[in-house]
Amino acid sequence: MFEAIAFYLFAALTIAMFTITVMTSQALYALTAMAAGMIFISAFFFILGADFLGVIQIIVYTGAVMALYAFGMMFFDTTRTIVEKRENPRTIFILGVLAATLVVFIFVSPIISTHIEAYYPINAAMGNSETIGLVLFTKFLVPFEVAAVMLLVAMIAGIVLAGKKMDKSLTLMAEEEIALMSATQAKSETEEGAH
Fold first, then answer.
1. How far apart are the C-alpha atoms of 26 and 4, rounded to whole Å?
2. CB 3.0–4.6 Å: which of 56, 69, 146, 158 could bond 31 by disulfide?
């Protein structure tokens, strides 16, 4: 009974958070809701007894969303309203229906099929974390290391790109210079909007 109540509670919270993520026009609200949704998803793993995956969900995905949050604060003007242009709403609708059908098929096919077997069945003598570690660091060691190197390269590239965009440091400028710079930027944006 407890599992059912917890499942429906966290399912409702997760759906609410990702609905806010998709529907809001403010980047920071969307990123905050996405981080909360990722944390609520980890609750499903804890309910299922997969503690290791629950912790990994919080550390990896929520950490990634927080990094995205930091880049969103650095690169985007969050006070500006966003006007979306939908060139062809029919194509968007068709792609949405196809994506929803694919998701339903992915979730329903294991329930219907009776021929699914696990490659690495759970060993009762070993815990959840030990089983995952054994598979990850034996059979999938090379892809695991390649993914780690790719993430490291992406992080270094993000730092380099962020450094190139910051030609002036706001922390070293006086308040008058910051006000003058933002007024100049607002004036140039209004002139671009007029054209």
1. 34
2. 69
CA dihedral 54, 56, 61, 63 (to 10 degrees): 120
Tokens of 133: 């570690």
Residue with tokens 């699914």: 116
Cα distance between residue 90 and residue 96, in whole Å: 10
Distance CA 124, CA 27 (A): 45
Cα 14 from Cα 33, distance rounded (Å): 9
Instruction: Compute CA distances 171 → 84, 116, 178, whole Å.
Output: 33, 58, 10
The length of the chain in residues reads 195
* 3-state SS assignment for residue 137: coil
The answer to whether the CB of 42 falls within 8 A of the CB of 54 is: yes
Q: What is the pLDDT of residues 18-64, one digit of tens each?
A: 999 898 887 778 888 888 888 888 888 888 888 888 888 888 887 77
Structure tokens belonging to residue 42: 């980890």
CA distance 134 to 136: 6
